[in-house]
Amino acid sequence: MANFSTHFKASIITSAALSTAILAVDLIPLIQVCGLFIIGSLAGLVPDLDSDRSKSLNTLFSIFSLAVSAIFILSFDFNSLLEIWASLLLIYGFINYAIKPIFEHFTVHRGSFHSISAVVLVVLTTLNLAMWLNFSITLAVLSAIYVLVGCLTHLILDECYSVDINNKEIKASFGSALKLFDTRYIAATLFQFTFIGLNIYWMWHSYDEIFNTFLNIKNTLVQMQFLPDLTKYSF
């Protein structure tokens, strides 16, 4: 499988490519595109939250703690510096000392978190969280799209590294990343599907708005001019 550095670089590249397309059609302000670029880059690391290596896991959770803290601080108004510090400490402590041990105990690397069902769960959770934070519907849908691209980039890269081109063989790990769901760990898979269902229920009242926004984004990107218009230049 690809290492941490390779995954991070790949997610940065795909997130940057998507960001240039968004900028080209002027869908949202530049500052929001920068935020989405960061989200997309971090999303490429999400499947490795089940990593068995303590260094990778500590790095990932430290990064996500900072990202969540930044989003929280920017989304709510605080009256004092003490409130900001207290919020940062609570978020960092909750993620690293409550959420992280759960991942360490219940997840297995290349297990249920390396699956399409896990990607669906993360994407839907991102969409619901963005709407709960009062993001505009366009920004919320784009956040989900960036997370989708980042996660899929990770899984596809893992599958590519499962093919040994030089020795012309397929490694035993081939197919373990892009599986629909993990049949080996039924409890974890049921947990995923339960929360996918809850996410679908939570966004029930916004279905039409989400769908129309997605179509608008798609149609806008489709109409994007890819090649320069040479007719405006005189030679």
TrEMBL record:
Transmembrane segments: 12-45, 57-76, 82-99, 111-131, 137-157, 185-204
Source organism, top-level taxon: Bacteria
Name of a matching Pfam family: YdjM
Keyword list, A-Z: Membrane, Transmembrane, Transmembrane helix
Protein's recorded name: Metal-dependent hydrolase
Organism: Pseudoalteromonas citrea
Lineage: Bacteria, Pseudomonadati, Pseudomonadota, Gammaproteobacteria, Alteromonadales
